[in-house]
Write a structure and sequence with these properties.
- This protein has 378 residues and is an alpha/beta fold.
- Helices cover 44% and strands 12% of the residues.
- It has 18 helices and twelve strands.
- It has helices at 3-6, 10-20, 23-30, 37-47, 85-88, 92-103, 117-120, 138-151, 169-174, 184-191, 194-203, 229-232, 238-247, 260-269, 290-300, 314-322, 332-341, 343-364; strands at residues 50-51, 66-68, 71-73, 77-79, 107-110, 128-132, 155-159, 251-257, 273-276, 305-307, 327-330, 376-377.
- It has an eight-stranded parallel β-sheet with strand order 4-11-10-9-8-7-6-5. The protein has a two-stranded antiparallel ribbon with strand order 1-12.
- Helix 14 (260-269) packs across helix 15.
Length: 378
């Protein structure tokens, strides 16, 4: 079957994923926090960005390749980290890592993934990124960095926009806890999703394997949206960023930046790139659209910029690149693809995004990504 004839867009994959994974898993993946106003603003903000069509360019094949952090990449996007990926689909981290390796694009694993750095090491491609939630204990920090480096991760991402656990009310209402406990209510939902259930039966219910080494039993009293990681992490400060810059000898990025003045200060601390993001509306419901912050951060720093939050297709990727991003990452989208089609979904989504980018670049007459800014009409 030609997947493009049945699932030509991310929206098709999203709809099928909702039919294939249990409701409590769907609520975890799809939800924001609060009334989900920030999540909605992200979509509305991207929709406001117009790009002027241009005609009479003749036949051409757009060049989607880019140089990012000194590396030539065939596509300007990669796979962003999502905690507990393996809850969305069995062996999610493995499928995502292998798909990224096949496409030669970055894959970023979360500290709170369901597979450890050691588990995923055999599946990593050339562009392996490790996202760190900041451990409080210096010995744990050093050990975590050493494990990531030994496993083959070359780029470190420090996430700074989660100083406290968000409430994620929709997730709480679903009955999901961390680690997941299969109550009768949740088991009834599992029974309706046989493909997901059979996969989980083979692998066992997921938990944060990368933190097993550091976990203790004192998890009682945590909120339903919190987990063992919150016992280990701290809210980082500027000194913490400086400490990590000294300890990590590879590329070092900071994720969760919206203010231009923060970008300036991070540049002074020697980070290699800045990740503009509002955590896709999952942490704070009062944030502006991340796309609105992007041009302001771009004007404030010469550092390479990554963008995420609300990206739903190739046109959105082009919008972010046109407004100053050097690279784009997608998290939910790749998990929708897994939920819809299993491992086949990863390759299919990469193909959807590339084809969508090429089609839209043809409409605006952009042969290369560097020509995108000139097409913007706000």
């Amino acid at each position: 079957m030609d997947l493009h004839s049945k699932y030509p867009a991310l929206s098709d994959l999203r709809a099928r994923a909702q039919r294939r994974i249990p409701k409590f898993v769907w609520e975890y993946l799809d939800s924001g926090t609060g009334d989900e106003a920030t999540k909605a603003r992200n979509r509305a903000g991207l929709d406001r960005i117009g790009m002027m069509p241009s005609v009479l360019h003749g036949e051409f094949t757009p060049d989607l390749s880019t140089d990012f952090l000194g590396k030539k990449l065939p596509l300007p996007f990669g796979i962003a980290p999502i905690g507990m990926s393996g809850l969305m689909w069995p062996d999610a981290e493995g499928h995502l890592a292998r798909g990224a390796a096949r496409a030669n694009i970055p894959y970023c694993i979360s500290t709170v993934a369901t597979q450890s750095p050691e588990d995923i090491a055999p599946h990593l491609g050339t562009h392996a990124w490790f996202q760190m939630y900041p451990p409080r204990d210096a010995d744990i920090r050093r050990d975590m960095l050493a494990r990531a480096k030994a496993a083959g991760f070359s780029t470190l991402i420090l996430t700074v926009d989660v100083p406290v656990a968000s409430r994620r009310e929709r997730q709480v209402r679903s009955g999901l806890t961390n680690p997941p406990r299969l109550t009768p209510r949740l088991l009834a939902q599992v029974a309706l999703r046989p493909a997901w259930a059979m996969g989980m039966a083979k692998r066992g219910m997921p938990h944060m394997r990368g933190l097993d080494k550091y976990a203790n039993a004192a998890t009682n009293g945590l909120s339903p949206t919190a987990h063992v990681g919150y016992l280990l992490r701290t809210a980082p400060d500027w000194d913490y960023v400086g400490w990590l810059r000294e300890e990590w000898d590879g590329d070092f990025l900071v994720k969760g930046v919206l203010r231009p003045e923060d970008a300036v200060r991070l540049e002074g601390l020697g980070v290699d790139a800045i990740w503009v993001s509002n955590h896709a509306g999952r942490q704070f419901d009062g944030a502006p659209p991340a796309i609105d912050a992007l041009p302001q951060v771009r004007a404030a720093t010469k550092l390479p910029l990554i963008f995420d939050s609300g990206i739903e297709g190739g046109l959105d990727i082009l919008r972010a690149l046109a407004l100053g991003a050097d690279f784009v990452m997608l998290g939910r989208a790749f998990h929708f693809a897994l939920g819809a089609l299993g491992p086949q979904g990863v390759d299919h989504l990469i193909d959807i995004l590339a084809k969508d980018m090429a089609s839209n670049m043809g409409q605006i007459g952009a042969r290369t990504l560097s020509e995108l800014p000139a097409t913007i009409r706000l």
